[in-house]
């Protein structure tokens, strides 16, 4: 039974990780706390829903398309709105700006898709995999795999590719990077695009696993906060560790203390972590954590 | 939910013209009956809010267009339902209800959720105006001594009486029953009322699980079911959470002979999402369009449903019918009082006993629905359709118990 | 450094506040009950925003979790009233209000030491976490009744209309908050907080006792916020955790300050007035897009007037001064 709970937690944690990594990246590199992150996640979910309903496209196949679309959205969002706000006002004020966008996106989703919950249910949504005593839903395993693959790909990109190096350099020393000929605006926008793309991917994975509705955006923003604070800002590994821990804490609390208490435990952990080690488990000295 | 440029501009224009914030609320037009109220159209409760909203509007449309209004004391009136979005914010709802009162609105419709309904009910009660509502069933509303607040549902703690009676007659008799309740006022009182009544009836209620109000993961519940193997699981959860629970039970291959989700399977979108797996799921059913109810205005439950489908795109739900029934109840009471005096209408509402599209409308002295006439029946999904299986008097199909296992449905 | 009224003493500010409060106290005589209820929302918003300003505006420690104190205050008061059956409503209310303020002060004191070591965004996130923990605990522990909800005592005197009574009660509380904020602002504590906002490390180096100052401001802010929460809850009459631990309480206070002018006292009051009017009156009629427009307004606000209305006024005044100087030359 404990094994089952552990596996359930890890699977849930995979979702948390994927849903938080974009938030983490934006926070780490730009120092921008994006309160519309959860809304971006939902846009990904609704896109998957639309493609599945209208074109019969499997969510996993739709994933690259949605990520590309979200990338463009994120890029444009940074170049047009956020950049303007951070230049004219403070980083903290940009938080309010993104809150405003979260409200707008949520309202738009209600108008387009109605307030009803939606769910994406391909034929395999009800199948499961069993390993001995442990049974896990197939879509949940798929979501976990998607999240690990994508996080690994992101980590590799940041570590080894040119653009990754540029992003990291900009995060560490904006001015020095600019002096070396880095186009800071472009790098920021790329980061924002990546962040949105991963939010979209998380939305697809979430849509595959559970029903969703517009008010859920708050949930995914707040979850991202917790994951990032636990794992540390700005790194895919941090998001993965934070997410997995959170997932396991979630299911274990439900099992051992009571099904109603995972959220309370989660936020308690957040506050404790901030007090003990504000940079998070795998934190580094990126912008947001200074 | 129609939104075009004109409506936006019109409301903006009206708003800019400094709406009646000062004294001197405008006089009520003589030829309309204004019924005011709020519904939650954004936020968690928006789904039901929209169903209630459409019920109100369908009835308004029908009375005005098909019957050319209503005749009271020899005069014809059109019905004018004025609603706003309270966004599930109690302060916003109270403020805007006060605006209606100041504007001279005499009759009110209720919002959804007891933490919204109660503060607004207090204001309306104090002003001595009646409120018909179909979204606040928590017991707290009916223990305040209010005289003007009427609800189409029985209070939450009494709603599952028929369900408990059904568990009592199950063959073979269930050996263990598990309750799972979402942690909100309605779901909790609903479950606690059923648990108390069930224990009184000697049912083996062995496990009670409290779930958070919104869940992202039901695996702990699934695991408990896996280890305790109850014969019956009764979950008082809202639609989205119910679907998550069902999906996780299916994909974990954990069977319950009787899976009862209080809210969810009554919706077509819910049954569609589960496809064949929804077969045999139980739920709390308040209304079925095939019920043999006669209605003095719509004709029958079926005719109401037909009318609704002609004019609204959104699927019909029992909240749509109960919303429309609120207006029907008002019209009956106004006709009986032969007056538009809110106090007289209130008195007639209190003694109302009339068959309608929604069933026989009759309230308890505290204002909630009569638990026998307006109580819920036991619904079950059979061949993809929501059927009523208990009590026998209103059944549309024979119940299936135990329900087929997930594995059988997978093959079928 | 911005002052409440630049160049004049605290006494002028206090006098203006008292005169303004008196003026507002007379308003119900001219307003419809709906107008009075909008007034309630305004006074509530202004009180909460100024209470937030005592820490957030003066010291730059932006709390994103003041709903914790609104909600905890409301529930402490409700539960204490439940525990005092047979008391007169006025007596029970007084005890409940004082206890709620005291307990919230204590709560703030306990969490202040660890949490106020965090800076900037981390403090903001930690407070968001605190407010969520409080919400989850209140709604999930049955004895606290957050899920089922709890009724509060009816404290309205017989011959007073309830909307007026609560308008005055909230106004009284908000006035007290503003006066306290003015006193803080013009005391040693206030100058210390401003120094912390400008540069905390330098301030400490120069001998400003930063930790005790921040903690004092935090505790004051928490107690004042709780006071508003208690009155707000009584106005509703019945609350569940969802009615008082609202995200709006966390974020709107910041919006008001940003709109009016961060770090000033008049700023949040003006901001609260404008936002209340826009969201409740102008957008009250819009059935399904009021949230969209609110969001749009926020975005425009941040983009177009990052320093708020006060910033616009400030720039205008500077320009006038310069023109005058040039004209005099």
Amount of helix of chain B = 25-40%
Category by helix and strand content of chain B: alpha/beta
Q: Approximately what portion of the residues of chain B adopt beta-strand conformation?
A: 15-25%
Strand content of chain A: under 5%
CATH homology superfamily of the largest domain in chain B: Response regulator
CATH architecture of the largest domain in chain B: 3-Layer(aba) Sandwich
Mind summarizing the main beta sheet of chain B?
A: 6 strands, mixed
Task: Output the strand order for the largest sheet of chain B.
Answer: 2-3-1-4-5-6
Total helices of chain B: the number is: 13
| Helix fraction bin of chain A | over 70%
Shape of chain A: globular
CATH topology of chain A: ABC transporter involved in vitamin B12 uptake, BtuC
* Total strands of chain B: 17
Structural domain count of chain B: 2
Spatial order of strands in the largest sheet of chain A: 1-2
Q: H/E series of chain B, N to C?
A: HEHEEHEHEEHEHEHEHEHEEEHHHEEEEH
| Quaternary organisation | heterotrimer
Overall structural domain count of chain A: 1
For the terminal residues of chain B, how far apart are their CA atoms? 39 Å
In short:
Chain A has 290 residues and is mainly α. Chain A has helices spanning 2-30, 37-55, 59-88, 91-113, 138-160, 162-172, 174-179, 184-209, 216-231, 236-256, 262-276, and strands at residues 128-131, 134-137.
List keywords for this structure.
heterotrimer; A: 290 residues; mainly alpha; two-stranded antiparallel ribbon; C: 329 residues; 1% strand; globular; disordered N terminus
